[in-house]
Amino acid sequence: MAVVIERRYCDAIHPLHAVLLAGGVPLYLGVALCDWAYMASFHIQWSNFASWLIVGGLILTAVTLVFALVDLLRPRRRGRGIAAYFVVLLATWVVGFFNALLHARDAWAVMPGGMILSLVTLLLSIAAVWLAFPTSRMGDPV
């Protein structure tokens, strides 16, 4: 007699949603690294690089927010933890927006607040990626 093991996985997010979500992490990591390089060298160009990377991260996060909102509003696709994921992603965008406003100031006025906001944005972005991909468990109902 053969034993059949049926594995059930949680609903995965759309592949484009996943790519956009994961694309924000290296951009926010680049912002933190540029801020660190600016703190170490005081070359103003590092602050300019950080500003452009923040804009890219905000654009990707905004599009990802639209995907997350659609998943949140569709009851059939709504998975466990989607509300927490949406809130963390929204917090990522809000903190990133304030980081962009801070980086729009004179380069000398960016530090140390810019570095702190960059690290907070990076950590929130990583937390959003962590929450977006639920782990698979055997026997969980779909």
From TrEMBL:
<dbReference type="Pfam" id="PF09990">
    <property type="entry name" value="DUF2231"/>
</dbReference>
<keyword id="KW-0472">Membrane</keyword>
<feature type="domain" description="DUF2231">
    <location>
        <begin position="14"/>
        <end position="131"/>
    </location>
</feature>
<protein>
    <submittedName>
        <fullName>DUF2231 domain-containing protein</fullName>
    </submittedName>
</protein>
<feature type="transmembrane region" description="Helical">
    <location>
        <begin position="12"/>
        <end position="29"/>
    </location>
</feature>
<feature type="transmembrane region" description="Helical">
    <location>
        <begin position="49"/>
        <end position="70"/>
    </location>
</feature>
<feature type="transmembrane region" description="Helical">
    <location>
        <begin position="108"/>
        <end position="133"/>
    </location>
</feature>
<keyword id="KW-1133">Transmembrane helix</keyword>
<feature type="transmembrane region" description="Helical">
    <location>
        <begin position="82"/>
        <end position="102"/>
    </location>
</feature>
<dbReference type="InterPro" id="IPR019251">
    <property type="entry name" value="DUF2231_TM"/>
</dbReference>
<keyword id="KW-0812">Transmembrane</keyword>
